[in-house]
Amino acid sequence: RVSSRAYVSEPPTTPGTSVSRLIPITPASLVGGSGLAPQQSWHRVGTRRCVDAGQADRIARPLRIEFAGALYHVTGRGNERKAIVRGDDDRRDWIATLAQVVSRFDWCVDAYCLMDNHLHLLVETPNANLARGMRQLNGVYAQRFNGRHGRFGHLFGGRYKAILVQREPHLLELCRYIVLNPARSESAPRSYETFPWSSYRATAGLVPVPAFLRPTAVLRHFDGDLAEARRRYREFVRAGLGGAQVPEEVVGEVYLGDRDFVRGHTAPNACVEIPRVQREPVRCSLEGLFEHDLQDAVARAYREHGYSLREIAAVLGVHYSTVSRRLRREEAWSAGVALQDLTPNGDVRPRRERGKPTWV
């Protein structure tokens, strides 16, 4: 039967059994008490709680792509855009925490900048552990900050943002963008050349290089001689003062790279709570979807790839109401296939005897 309630399966209560019973999902039972309305008609997915992408509201969460050698531009902002540091003691503690995280998780930091209410990191993860490291960095620092200032609650506003970066040609531009943040601050612009809480001075050879920073990844692009490389680096950063305020070409709020780079690192089968533009930033074309004359092509274009009824109708040369009728029939056909899979001995016709849904 089709139910108006949502369900998850509960592990069997009797040892040695493999059958689980269905229990209803209530708003309070969802993770974090988010209050999602259980509007999907039927769900059974083992012991995992799952929400249908097309039938229930969700709390969107950013896509996390991790692999060995990945390069990320990581940003974090204070809760309600408030300060994450109140003095130099806090700044030194954040630097010390970052150094501990880099050592523990074997990170390679190419650039960083700690502002009053946000931070920037350009970091490579040889061991595919960005999430673990950021949990350590933000969590430990926030605990210490709260303890020093006698406060409670969140220090950072939401999850950190991590953009997967194609090293060439974006490494140098990102390094420059990060260290120029003090000069571009709208509230209190400061000289990037004297700002002590970024990687600029160490990379430029003005102060000793901290153990957690890897300036050679940047300097080797300028010259083989260290002194000359530092001089050209300083000129390169100075030339960017009148440039763009933010990195361009970011796709789906997750990727910074060309089309081939984005396609090579997409995750179309990721959790449905992740926005579609991040799971599939480069969509399949409608022409390509309909080229193979799939029986559920309209449903796939609409539900999986996010095309509107009008966009589909324009490609097929029909009215969008015709596409809407076709979509309903394809969904009904797919439901019949699913029912046949669940009831192989029932009176539903075998899949091979079902015809393709018609436009009429």
List keywords for this structure.
single chain; 360 residues; alpha+beta; two-stranded antiparallel sheet; 13 helices; 8 strands; disordered N terminus; disordered C terminus
Write up this protein.
The structure is a single chain. The protein has 360 residues and is an alpha+beta fold. It contains 13 helices and eight strands. The chain has a six-stranded mixed sheet with strand order 4-5-3-6-8-7, sandwiched between helices. Strands 1-2 form a two-stranded antiparallel sheet. A hairpin with a 3-residue loop joins strand 7 (250-251) and strand 8. The radius of gyration is 26 Å and the shape is elongated. Residues 1-59, 270-275, 341-354 and 356-360 have low confidence and may be disordered.
Measured between the Cα atoms of the first and last residue, the distance is: 29 Å
How many whole angstroms does the radius of gyration measure? 26 Å
Strand content: 5-15%
Q: What's the mean pLDDT score?
A: 74
Query: Which shape, going by the Cα principal axes?
Result: elongated
Topology record:
Elements: E1 7-10, E2 21-24, E3 70-77, H1 88-105, E4 108-114, E5 118-125, H2 130-149, E6 161-165, H3 167-179, H4 181-184, H5 200-203, H6 216-219, H7 226-239, E7 250-251, E8 255-256, H8 259-264, H9 276-279, H10 286-291, H11 297-304, H12 309-316, H13 320-342
Parallel strand pairs: 6-8
Antiparallel strand pairs: 1-2, 3-5, 3-6, 4-5, 7-8
Summarize the model shown.
It is built from 13 helices and 8 strands. It has 360 residues and is an alpha+beta fold.
